[in-house]
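Milestone M4 deliverable, item 7.
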Amino acid sequence: MSGARSLGSSHRGVTAFLVQRITSLYLALFTVYVVFWLASKPASDFAGWSAYFESGLVRMAWGLFFASLLAHAWVGLRSIYMDYLKAMWLRFTISTLTAFGLMAVALWCAQILIRGAA
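Output delivered:
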């Protein structure tokens, strides 16, 4: 069996591919929902937006939207970094800064969604 290969880390590309496709599907569907919602029931003031975000399902859907957006961004940027940043120290530095930036945005989104529940 000289032609047989161990899967090893070769499945990582498939995982990144699936994350990109699944998150893009959710992002697209949720965007369509938001556009139709805004067209049918526009919230013109803070009270209207507060009423909209009172529902736990709405906050959960928005939380999933932001999580999908951040995961989608991470996988895409990571692929770009791995393809175009050849120096390991530069790739590590930029990837680390990106990860911290995305985590900060995730915490900010969580704060907004949790504060909307209070």
